[in-house]
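Give me the fold.
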Amino acid sequence: MVNDIIADERSPVSASGHAYGEAERREANLIYEYADHLQRHGHRVARQLIQIPGEPRPHRTDLYDTSTNRLIEAKGTLHREAVRLAIGQLFDYRRFLSPEPALGLLLPAKPSADILELCRALGVKIIWQEGGGFTESSGG
C-alpha cells in the first residue's frame, strides 16, 4: 500500500538535530502522491534497500516503479543543488540494481529549461506535479 512506501527510517529530526524542513515534508508528500498516481494507473511501486559495501546501514530509495523498471528520486525543491544531489543518488543507486533501471527525478513543479536539458543529456526523465496530476519530460 502507498503508506508503506513512504514509511521509512527517517525520524522527525535530521542529522544536524534540526527538525525536517518544508522541503522534506513536500518531498514525502510528493512521493506519496506520485506512488498513489502510479498505482491508480495500474503500476506496482516499491522501494529498494541498497546495501553498499563498507556502509553500516542500507540506503532506501525514494520510489521504484516495478512496472517500468524505473528508479525515482524525489526532491521537494527545484534548487539546482537538490537536483544535482538527486542525480548523484540515482547514478549511485543504479549501480546496485539489476536489471539496471531507467532513472526518474520527481519534482514539485516544472524545473528550468537548463535543468530539463541537463537531465535529458543524462538520460534522466523528470516528473513534476502539474494541475491535478503529473507530467513527464520527453527525454530520459
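The radius of gyration is 14 Å.
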